[in-house]
Design goal:
The protein has 238 residues and is an alpha/beta fold. Helices cover 40% and strands 21% of the residues.
């Protein structure tokens, strides 16, 4: 985490100071913002390696800041801090582009583990292509280059977040297999989300919006009612 620039927008001073202390000990450059107005100014004025947003803030909420950040062309990971009483806000946060969330009260070690996971995915996306590498996975008109974290549909690069790419890649490894939401939580998120299967639903909807001609009537990532989701290889032209 050495040299990573992290913005923390959190109005609870004790939590903000604790996070700044631990992330600073790991070598990160941490900037604190105590309300939504200051957080929004900082988020849009500088380049960050990570933005940590409390949802409930004086002034603009963490959700509003996240929405503004996602309107920018440059991708930056966004992690939300939420309370147990705001499940709807967590779902909305994922819908508008947050990469992950941690529920208060939280373990600092868990938070750091999730931050490291976000950085690993981003590093994989930005790493140079090796001289020798395996061929991209091809399923009809969908191709996935896992080392480059790049997916193409009909030859066009899909603008996916790290989590959306991981989800699509997971489906593509076994096209036609039906995955339950709990399986996807375990396999793609890995560290547990307290059973919040809305996390899967939200990312499925965002992924459909980017790959389906008509997201309300999906052809590629289809719902198997009462079970889960699958990637329909036949529709992709295999």
């Amino acid at each position: 985490m050495e040299g990573k620039k992290i913005l923390i927008v959190e109005d609870e001073q004790d939590i903000a100071a604790l996070l700044a202390l631990h992330l600073g000990d790991l070598g990160a450059e941490v900037v604190l913002a105590a309300d939504g107005h200051e957080g929004l100014r900082n988020a849009c004025a500088k380049s960050w390696d990570l933005i940590i947003l409390d949802i409930q803030l004086p002034g603009p909420s963490g959700l509003e800041i996240c929405r503004k950040v996602r309107q920018n062309q440059n991708y930056v990971p966004v992690l939300l801090l939420t309370s147990r009483a705001t499940e709807l806000d967590r779902v909305l946060g994922l819908d508008i582009g947050a990469d992950d969330y941690v529920t208060k009260p939280f373990s600092v070690m868990e938070l750091i583990a999730r931050i490291r996971a976000l950085f690993r995915r981003l590093d994989a996306m930005n790493s140079p292509r090796p001289v020798l590498e395996s061929q991209p996975l091809a399923i009809g008109k969908l191709s996935i280059d896992e080392p480059m974290c790049e997916a193409r549909l009909d030859g066009q690069v899909l603008d996916l977040t790290a989590k959306e790419f991981s989800l699509l890649n997971h489906f593509a490894r076994q096209p036609g297999r039906v995955y339950q939401r709990a399986e996807l939580l375990d396999s793609v998120w890995g560290y547990g989300h307290d059973g919040y299967e809305h996390t899967v639903n939200s990312h499925i909807n965002r992924l459909r919006a980017k790959i389906e001609t008509d997201p309300k009537n999906p052809r590629y990532i289809v719902t198997v009612w009462g079970v889960g989701y699958k990637l329909d290889a036949a529709e992709l032209g295999t």
